[in-house]
Amino acid sequence: MSFSHREETRGDRLLDVLTDEAAGLRIIVSRLGTELISLARRNEQGSWIGFLYRDDDLSPPAKGWANHATVMGYFLHRLKDGRGLYRGEPIEGGTHSFLRTKVWRRAAADATKGRLTYRMAPGDFTATEYPLRVSLDLTYEVAGGAVRVTFRFENEEREKTAHVGFGLHPGFAAQSFESFRLSMPAGVYRRHFSPTNYLSGETEEINFAGGEMPFPRERLPGSYILELVDVPNRTFLYEDPPTGRSVAVDLSGVPYVTLWSDGGPFLCVEPCWGLTDHDEQRAFEDKAGIQTIAPGAILERSFVMAPQV
Question: 43-46: long-range contacts (C-beta < 8 A, 24 or more apart)?
Fold first, then answer.
């Protein structure tokens, strides 16, 4: 058996450390927000090399983005002014909704299979945060030198269709804001403009031949929200040549990806199942890209990150 698992406490944070000893791959997950705070590989000298921004660092930064790989949902990105209506009832939440602020319960830690599963269930959130009985199991699985992140929603309502928006917000580390590059696969993309952090309704079709990201990096703080309209091969390659780090991000089955940085030494490549609010806010069930789950049904979606030194 090549996997090992241990718990670790740092201050008020409870962490799970899962290591694939044979592959030299390690993840660290905080129960707060079930956030992946470290994605690391062991180099030839035996040292752990982190791939996330501020990898394994829980201290508050002097400025800039303070996270590593934020979990987003049940309503993705921003509700306008932090509030909205769902089926006529009020809902409220922060920038990435309520999941990031909760201390999750670990549902399972199967070191023999390299899996950590965390659960958010009715009773763990209020009716104002989300009014329906919907549970979420979030699994981090280490296999084949990569990490698969799986969202598994179950709609426990007997008569009501549930609506959810979700994703992950991983920031990949770089030596500097100028040093990283992102290669995007060929295909047809649709850019959704959000000049005020909310969708304006303006879109642009992009027929891309494949290669390095075709967007000016100085505009990354405003975000590039991309719909993968017709992109047959959905593997994105993040590289930071000065440090020799790269991450292949397989977004097969993912409908949207957001590219963002605040100008710091990182790039966020965010798989999204749903989008931020429109500037002219719609009801939650009518949000762009919203995912639906029939009564009693299950919705399961995943993506894969493969880091290399």
Answer: 43/309
Residues of the chain with pLDDT under 70: 1
What confidence score (pLDDT) does residue 96 get?
Answer: 81
Q: Which residues pair with 149 in a beta bridge?
A: 140, 303
Instruction: Specify the pLDDT at position 76.
Output: 82
- Which positions ≥6 away from 59 have C-beta within 8 Å? none
Alpha-carbon dihedral 98, 100, 105, 111, rounded to 10 degrees: 150
Q: Is 37 left (phi over 0), alpha (psi -120 to 50) or beta?
A: alpha
Distance, first Cα to last Cα, the chain: 24
Q: How many CB atoms lie within 10 A of CB 232?
A: 10
Predicted pLDDT of residue 94: 77
Alpha carbons 137 and 130: distance in angstroms, whole number: 16
Pairing of strands 105-110, 224-230: unpaired
Question: Which pLDDT score is estimated for 85?
Answer: 94
Beta bridge partners of 266: 173
Question: What does the block give as tokens for 144?
Answer: 């084949």
What is the topology classification, in CATH, of domain 3-308? Beta-galactosidase; Chain A, domain 5 (2.70.98)
pLDDT of 40-52, one tens digit each?
Answer: 999 989 899 999 9
3-state secondary structure of 148: strand
* pTM exceeds 0.85: yes
Residue entry with tokens 């670790």: 8
Tell me the helix, strand and coil percentages in the chain, rounded to 5. 5, 50, 45
Per-residue model confidence (pLDDT) at position 1: 54
| Exposure of 262 in the CB half-sphere (CA atoms within 13 A) | 8
Work out the number of other CB atoms within 10 angstroms of the CB of residue 292: 12
Listed by start position, the domains of the chain span 3-308
